[in-house]
Model the fold of this input.
Amino acid sequence: MSIEFILIADFKNLDDLSDTSFEAEYYPATELEYPNANACETYYILAPKDPDHYNPIMCLEQSLYTIFECYLTPAQQALFGTLPTDFLQDVDNTPPSSPLTQLSGDSEQSSPVKFPSYDPRGMNHLRLLQRSIRRRDGPLFLSTMQNINQLLRTLKYPPLPSDPFAPAPPNVLIEAIKNWPSSGIPNRVLMRIIDETYQRSVGPHALKLNRYEAFSSEVYGELMPSFTSDIIAATRLHKDSLFMDLGCGVGNVLVQASLETCCRSYGIEVMPTPAEVGREQLRQMKKRCRMWGISMGEVELEEGDMLTSRRVTELLPQADVVLVNNKVFQQSCQSTSFYLWQNVDPVTVNEALRPRFLDLKEGAIVVSLKPFVSSLNARVTERNVDDISAIFDVFERPYRSGSVSWGSGGGSYYLHRVDREGYAVIKQQFENQRARSARASRR
Done:
């Protein structure tokens, strides 16, 4: 791993300053129970030398608070305590998304959850956790996490009924998913899975990728998760869609699209290192989904050239949405612009892609950072009616500041919708005009 850690400053045993078990060479650790059965992860009580790098304790906190917010009912939340104010301020305006109040079934038939008897005082565990981190109190941190995990295990593995023929009670945390809104995964859960996946799969390869911080301005060519969500909404991507990313890099957009909508996704990347990291990111995403009890759509990754790939040729006629981050092709000075190493003119890549779009079906959408047409809202004339781009209706849409990794400002992206029917009507009009002109010239 290329990220270097040190022990958090003076994290120690406040009651016994001679206790060396919290020194860096001992790698003190704790665990966090995730919602699904047999899903538990070890977190080392370490912090990075650079505050912008991955911080295990911060990651643990955010994941724990997300479980609390999205998988527990108010009655269950009361067992753990109260969330920190800063986390609540960051919460989406949508209300808490799991109103589950019983284990399962109808309220008249279900039994209440049997909570552990070891904690009769109803301690505010989340507040104790915050205090232990603020004071760098190692024993308090570990004991509090032990109590929190015990509570989570009680919800995940409720006691078996006395009747041996009665069905085993379900995992309360997984049952909560059934009560989420029909609109999909709560945004907080979505962002946690994306961030956990990225930090564990892409972050360790930062040096190889010539990258530094996850989703930072020093990472060339990435679309931020919020921008990806905007594209998903604008194109109305759904579970029956086929999404293609031509030049997918490490696969960020692919895995998010399949996670957010359960659509089928395909991506191709020519550079070996990003392609390798992309495969690792997909493996990690699948693991994270199992831990959180979430399903995602099928994702296919290919390492190769988008201009010569047989798989691209096979799938383009089926695609509903095709993403091309052709902003990359315009940056001739960037070492990560993946076609430059083959000495291919970036403009040529854009031009070579245009005829491939003739294979797209009616209504398919090409999303790009640079338009594939010579001018927006240009009127189709007899001079340009035979141009490939005439089959597109093009819409320019803004993206907000912080949506892309290569700049801090906002900008525009473009939706090219295939409209052959409209194009056919216009072309027929021009052909009729040509025919009338030809007849008139023979008179």
Notes: Confidence is low (pLDDT under 50) at residues 1-10, 91-121, 211-220, 330-344. The chain is about 35% helix and 15% strand. Residues 420-442 form the longest helix (23 residues).
